[in-house]
Amino acid sequence: SIQFMSIQGIRAFNPNPRDREQQLQFFKPLTVILGANGSGKTTIIEALRTACTGDYPPGTGSGSGFVHDPRIEGETEVKAQIRMQFYSGTQKNQMLVIRSFRVLQHKSRQEFNSLDTTVQVRENDGRMASCSYKCSEINKLIPEFMGVAKPILDNVIFCHQEDCNWPLSDAATLKKRFDDIFASTRYTKALDEIRKFRKEQVKEVKKHELELAVLKEQKGQADQKHESLRQDEATLRTIQGQRKDLDDRSADLKTQLDKVQRACDSIHTLHEQLQKKTGQVESETEHVRQLHSKIEEEFTEDDAELHHMAQAYTTQVDQYRRDCVQLESQLLAQKKIVDKLENEYMDARSKRQRLDDQQTEYERKLEDMQAIVRQQSREYNIPMDVCGDLGTGF
């Protein structure tokens, strides 16, 4: 809402800066301006309109007819100023707009200039702070600050008396005025922009849907590879477990083989002892035979004693033979055990070699798969937390 306005050098208002400028205070909800013809009522409305919109009244040319005529004062230059203070309708701030003008009187013509336009805003501490805007920007901003559209200011609130009959204009002019007042042109343009924007967004959505489909397919492939990798990891863990079991079994077999080897060594020693004993028996038998052949006289012992001695000798020989047979049987049994353990050991070594080959092939495939996954992640900008941490999962 407008609080007050001061006018100096506009129309018939005194342009002399030494004289006090004319000030008008406005009240709520209504301010009535009364006066005789020529007292300046229309000039006040024109000044309000110019202060708000920057437009000059009709019939004033470029604005020179709106400023006090220098020829009346007998001067070559007249300066004019309009100051209007109001409350912003959007931010409820107290604002002051100052518009200054100048007319120079030349020999045969007048030159009009709009000097500067200033907008001041009252801060919280009560000081007035100046805001720097271009003139064209101020002409747009003041109606926005006041919360009233410029066509309403021009055609309704501050309508000039020469344009007050515009509701009786022809249909085209009337339509244009109402379009300006109700901003239908802007509304139509806004609808066109919305349609254009929607069309572009639909294209973008279709484009992104295609990209999403591709990304979904790529994500599906990545999920499949991740699942395959998970299965391969499980297979690797199984193989590693089997390898550990085989290593443990191989260690047990090696321990058993060492025992068998020691048994073989013991059997070999027993075999050597058997051969030695056999040789001794044969030697003793030959010695007995030789001694028997050399006997020149009969034994003095009776038959019973000789029979007892022969039986004892035979018993000792039989014991030696039984020992030889038992040792040979033990040797054969130990050889069978050694052969069985050697076969199991060779089977274990062969199976371990196959598992080592499988592990090597799996690790090579795993490295290839990780390289492919990382390449696709970089190529399609797929975050690693979507595909799984393939690089540090092992």
UniProtKB/TrEMBL annotation:
What's a single GO MF annotation on this record? ATP hydrolysis activity
**Catalytic activities:** ATP + H2O = ADP + phosphate + H(+)
Any GO CC annotation of this UniProt entry? condensed nuclear chromosome
- What cofactor does its activity depend on? Zn(2+)
Compartments, record wording: Chromosome; Nucleus
Q: Which Pfam families match?
A: AAA_23
Q: Where is the Rad50/SbcC-type AAA domain?
A: 5-226
Q: Which GO terms describe its biological process?
A: chromosome organization involved in meiotic cell cycle; double-strand break repair; telomere maintenance via recombination; telomere maintenance via telomerase
Entries under InterPro entries matching the protein: P-loop_NTPase, Rad50/SbcC_AAA
Coiled coil (UniProt feature): 198-263, 310-379
Family membership noted in the UniProt record: Belongs to the SMC family. RAD50 subfamily.
Q: Which PANTHER family match?
A: DNA REPAIR PROTEIN RAD50, RAD50
- Record-given protein name: Rad50/SbcC-type AAA domain-containing protein
Name the source organism. Answer: Eutreptiella gymnastica
